[in-house]
What we know:
Layout: H1 2-15, H2 21-60, E1 66-69, H3 72-76, E2 84-85, E3 97-100, H4 102-113, H5 121-138, H6 143-160, H7 165-179
Parallel strand pairs: 1-3
Antiparallel strand pairs: 2-3
Helix pairs in contact: 1-2, 2-4, 2-5, 2-6, 4-5, 5-6, 5-7, 6-7
Bound molecules: zinc ion.
Amino acid sequence: MLLILLTALAVGIVAWPGRTARARLVWALAFLVLLAPNWWMEARWLRTQAAASEVVRALSGRPEAYAQCQRFSGAFFYARAATGWVEYGEDGSTSPEAWLTYETCQRIRDWREGGRSAPTEQQVVAVHVLTHEAMHVKGERSEAVAECMAMQADARTVVLLGATRAQATALAQRYWSEVYPRLSDGYRTGDCRPDGPLDQAPGDGAWP
Ligand SMILES: [Zn+2]
């Protein structure tokens, strides 16, 4: 929003009556240098959000579902611990929005743009948070069940985000073996196995 206002302001300054052609050109170039990188960042951000939305739609089965990435300005004042969020209505309804923190979206973006082959643990967790919130959008309210379903669906998320099946399996297995054991009790269940019915990426079978 701020970027749109700044761009409008820049256009106004360049088009201001009475300027010489040379002055207009100087102003236009100055604003181009200042604003172009911001528009480029904005486009990257929207691409990440669109890819995450695609995942939420596919995993939840709700065509109206989407992901909302927190903006940098919002992250500045954000004090909650949650890395993602889905609202529930008092009437029993579930919001179609999977809300994700700035850091979560940033890590998903960096992982997608960084070749996807060697994710950091933070990136593994960020991709999983997206899957986890998609399970809530699907209607699952229990944290332990949503977490288990998400782990079984992580491989599918990874493929939907453009990675290979091998990368999908590797990321999902890493979450299962490195992150899941460290979660608090409310998020874990002894009944959970990584090879549930949801872990199948588009194409073929389950984990090896
Ligand atoms: Zn949750």
